[in-house]
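Moderator note: this is an archived Q&A kept for reference. The question asked for a predicted structure of one protein chain; the sequence and the answer are reproduced below.
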Amino acid sequence: MTLLDLCSYIGLGATGAVTVNLLLGMLMALRYSPVRAWPHRRINVFLLHRGTAWIAVVLTVTHPLVLLFIRAPRFRAVDLVWPIHSPLQPWINFAGAGAAYLVLLVFLTSLVRTRLGRSLWRAIHYCVFPAAVFIFLHSLLTDPLLKDGHPDLLDGGKVFVESCALLSLAAVAVRWRQRGLGFRPRLRDGRAASPES
């Protein structure tokens, strides 16, 4: 395995971790209960959400760092932090950097959410949606061989990213449809039951 392969695999791992984290976050927002619904087991969804957040952040930060050790094309530290002048695909890399910054913002503010207050934390937390868009754009449009060619959208890695993007889009659609109701039991008039019911 080459360093370029390692960089690609870490990037795919970051994309998968962000997707799983996004899905878990939306389940929590919809008041999903794994005890009441499938799989009818006590599962700490919040702990899973926090764990996948850590994995997503570690992989998102590690992914561009591998580029510093690749001989050609030569990436400098400034190309990772502000990739406008990176040797290849600067705008696509800029989307990746924007995604990384948004993921870090959401993650770091989640660590201090009690100090920020719920409304501010929640507003910042919505940055996860543009972050996901930037991640998918970067992952789909980047040439994995770093030869500035056109990426093969039927490549296994690209199909994985496309699947993550479609899954996320479907989850956002369900989230939008269920807003205000969630997965709580319904009353006879169709409204969601309050937690006390």
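Archived answer notes: The radius of gyration is 19 Å.
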